[in-house]
Write a structure and sequence with these properties.
The structure is a homotetramer. The first copy, chain A, is α/β, with parallel strands linked by helices. Chain A has eleven helices and 13 strands. In chain A, the strands form two sheets. A seven-stranded mixed beta sheet of chain A has the order 8-9-7-10-13-12-11. A six-stranded parallel beta sheet of chain A has the order 2-1-3-4-6-5, with helices on both faces. Chain A is globular, with a radius of gyration of 20 Å. The two termini of chain A are 39 Å apart. Chains in contact: A-B, A-C, A-D, B-C, B-D, C-D. At the C-D interface, strand 7, strand 8, strand 9, strand 10 and strand 13 of C face strand 7, strand 8, strand 9, strand 10 and strand 13 of D.
């Protein structure tokens, strides 16, 4: 059987180029097109020398025709609002689309408009779009032709809370998430003093307090899990690492749950998941242990004094946070083994 | 008037040597003795070349006689339990003692024993010891001859919450603190794989989940502030910076408090404090802005959706977290202007 | 044909565990044994959670019998002097041995004794041992059963200088190498204040000035390349990165060599090498572009004012510096395609 | 006697704001004016919160009148070419001018034009401008009204080599400097992908190989020291620290010089210098030990095998590299004790 052909639209960003890096180790598909406006005409290995000797493909400007003719699966890594224009045409041409942006994440177009400041031009596609978190929506992803990849923070927070919310063991209006992210989460093109090395290194800060765009997305999925509207408190922090998200999530338990029961519940829930690993009792996740991979490491701790559970989740924001998840979704959409190209030990020591 | 003479017992640790660094810019006292067991006989500038040309004093082994004869004020930087032995004798000799350890922080000797695994050998001194956080106990510190310096985390959490708790505006059993600390908080002598550069850099992790020793200390002071027993949830994190603590504290407001009122309340509460700065609305604290100083930067954000306030506090764990605070207490104890030697712009850019 | 079986002796160190990481993506061999004394009885994924879900093999204590019965190829990652004891027995049992230590690097046992303070107990094996740098000794490696992997610094310095020295275009007593290394080069078990995060981060220093153990090894190979005794000046630096070596090497050119000719010479020399990439004119190597890979990036610059060439080489000290090179040698020794398991894009952004 | 009044033109850059930080601890002058175009109308503590509670002065746009009326001493931190316009007018008004740019460093206006791409509009001032390195030109600085502060790299390289060159003990065409700098050397306004955190952290690279602007400046001063034209090889490196330069300089010794003699020579040469410290034999400089200070730490190592000396120099590029040196020059120009405001222990641990 011939391999599916894959295009990456906007290939030089951090998330997109990480997809390319992972695809270099994936033997079930073939990269057939890389587009870039700013670097058109150059080879990807000239723009990003980390691909020297591994991928020397030329970057071409985006055109619908080129993508349609070259690819069966398309990863879209475009600015907010652009996928709204491109995805409908690709779907019409029978392509499978995996969108890295938020354009199809929010089911309610009004919420999209409120948070992204743009009218949603194709709300009719929203029911068709599947939120690309396989541990929550695996079957839907298998059948989807339009997948909206989750934000990097939501992936970790949702994996941390799903087992409790789904069983009604946590109060859905008590979710409290303080998350730290590496700086690659800000992307490659968003330059400026905020990400200037001398102002980031040796520094800790919170940001987005008055409303981070990942919050509505999380509340949507938390509500789905709980079967009732969820409200969460979310504080994001920027810390001086390149890759990695550590989410410290706490929730009120609706009932007494012992440490042993909590641990067993999570081990059971994620026992057959290839990428979600529950740490042994007493161990806690560290981002270095997932660096460069699609893994999410979790630990669960009951805090009887406050009646809360402390849920820790570590992921690589460019791994399970975007690129790894993108490949996992692609594998499902193409009927390939879900772990193809993703059985990787972490690069962190 | 002759200057007070100051001794530092255990001068080569991070906290103690930071006290020495700050004392080099303090013109109201005179450093008269530095002790060290491990480096006895060497000059401090040989052990710590950052003092080359600034302080070349010889390190001598500790002896009660030497300290008593050389100093009026003594900073004790010793392992847990050692200050219990030394402080009573220094007090008996009429010295003023500022202890960096936890030996005199907890008012209840049983709590001390529970958390530090040692019986408290001089509980009769506990009522005499003052918790060395000037913004909470200024007058008592002025009159004290034994000051127990707070832990680095508690300083930030208590400064963040005091205005609300004192006024009964926050529920004292709802305090939720997730804090990040730089690695110098672990000290200079606690070597090991946990602080080995390749395992710390580019890594994020939580630690001490099942009970961090700073929690009982915080709950003691939170209860005092609230006038009723407080219970808190506390998660500490280790992040790859040398200096700096960022504490993200949230509390349930007992009543609707608008953003404007919250901001005004904090500005009013800390308006005359020389070292606690409330950020302007929309600004948030960053640890680089307090690096090397005794400052604590705070921001306050009302979160009406959850009914909580988000309180952010940044300090240098070696500054307001220990050494700066030590000098601030010393100034108070000696009747010197409180800011002597501490009016410093941060070293971070 | 059945796959060769591979053992790693001393599997939890940084170099050895990086070999394991790379082997997880190598489909031509099978990992059959991992030994560790300190972590015996645990699974590798317990000791190093970066292997969770990828390799859960149990660590067993070393025994000759176990290794002989389990493996065809053995990677030895032991303390200096231990391979001297083990390698002869493994060779006698018909195994192929790849040694990570310096035990078989130096052809002159007296030089070994001088630098490592140990008598060389099996000098008769030295002529049989091949210095495991494929770009210099490919054919010998193919036929070898004992390969001594080069030190991390030498690999970069030798790749940088080989084209000039081999052609007699550089003066072999003029080699001047100032190299920077990430801290993982110090290993996982060599803990201590020198690698304590607060003393390494935000710090730059040189070390080993009076004689770094990699110098005799480099001079041996430089002399072989030049066909005449070479003497070099070598200064190593420790910088706050985890992985990466950047070597800045300069040599006196024996004749006028234009920039164009120099560039062409290197491109020609390395044109068919899969892992050595000569940067385009004006571009220079950066360690992030080789992070996690077996690549070495080079640039060459003629400096007519001083008559020297400036040769820059970047490698991952755990990649081409040890583990990648180990796999490359193994592939050659087993007759597998040389790039098997090593066609990787770098993890650095 | 009334204190001299000081203005900083362009006060928000890294070098300029570091001057302000140091001036906050200088009791011999008074800051009377801070200018900024981009942040005009704001307080310096709003733009740079590290000054909260220490300096809240308003930033005003530059005007000659304002500076002339407010200040006796003026620090100019302007883009290349701007000081050429402003300095003559300030001098005409009787002010003392300390220029941070390269506008008055090079004695030959043709060299200036060649390297900075601008004609030098006031070459008549060049003989009057003194190169602001007190250890080389102390007496001239005392009498100067125009001081051109050296570049950050040249300070370290010149201090490392001066004792040998001045005595004719080193060959002036053999100077070989490989230097590493922290990223603050690139300044606060030069944003871009080159200084974007994810591309700088965990990365090592060289830059400016084909001609760094600090080279002509160094060769000018090296030639003066040697009394004969000097030529040097210079390679600059960018490494992931905020502050700090480590220069590794080697020179050919014209004669056999023993390690003991070399050490004694340097200790003698710098024995009375308050800011240049020669490390004890076997010790080497580390940038953390000079962080935030005006110190330069040196070590000297004879390498008999190659007949060269290895000279290591560590400085804070924002300290002795610019702001500390600026205060040191100011002290000399004003007849104040040279160390006023500069007796500081380093902030690095």
């Amino acid at each position: 059987m011939s391999k599916s052909r894959v295009a990456i639209v906007g290939a030089t960003g951090y998330g997109a180029s990480e997809i390319l890096r992972l695809l270099m180790g994936h033997d079930g598909v073939e990269v057939s097109l890389l587009t870039s406006e700013s670097s058109r005409g150059k080879r990807i290995s000239q723009v990003l020398p980390r691909f020297r000797g591994v991928c020397d493909r030329e970057l071409v400007p985006f055109s619908l025709e080129a993508v349609v003719s070259a690819a069966d699966v398309v990863f879209l890594a475009m600015h907010a609002g652009k996928a709204l224009e491109v995805a409908p045409q690709l779907l019409a041409a029978g392509k499978k689309v995996i969108d890295l942006s938020a354009d199809f994440r929010l089911k309610d177009p009004a919420v999209y408009e409120q948070w992204y400041g743009l009218p949603h031009s194709c709300p009719e596609l929203l029911p068709r779009a599947v939120y690309g978190l396989p541990e929550l929506h695996r079957e839907a992803i298998r059948g989807a032709d339009l997948v909206a990849l989750p934000g990097c923070y939501p992936t970790s927070v949702l994996l941390a809370t799903a087992p409790l919310l789904k069983r009604g063991l946590a109060d859905p209006v008590s979710v409290h998430a303080t998350c730290m992210s590496g700086v690659s989460g800000a992307g490659r093109s968003k330059l400026g003093i905020d990400y200037h090395f001398p102002e980031v290194d040796e520094n800790l800060k919170a940001y987005g307090l008055m409303g981070h765009r990942h919050r509505p997305e999380m509340e949507q999925e938390l509500s789905l899990l709980a079967g009732t509207p969820a409200t969460m408190l979310f504080v994001a922090h920027l810390v001086p690492v390149i890759r990695g998200i550590l989410s410290t999530v706490t929730v009120s338990l609706t009932d007494q749950v012992s440490q042993e029961k909590l641990q067993a519940l999570y081990e059971d829930h994620y026992g057959s998941e290839p990428f979600v690993h529950v740490m042994e009792p007493g161990e806690h996740p560290e981002t270095r242990n997932v660096q460069g991979t699609n893994a999410c490491h979790l630990s669960v701790t009951a805090e009887p004094r406050t009646g809360r559970a402390i849920l820790l989740a570590a992921e690589d924001n460019l791994g399970k946070g975007i690129a790894g998840q993108a490949l996992q979704c692609m594998n499902l959409m193409l009927g390939l083994p879900e772990t193809t190209g993703l059985r990787l030990a972490a690069v962190g020591l």
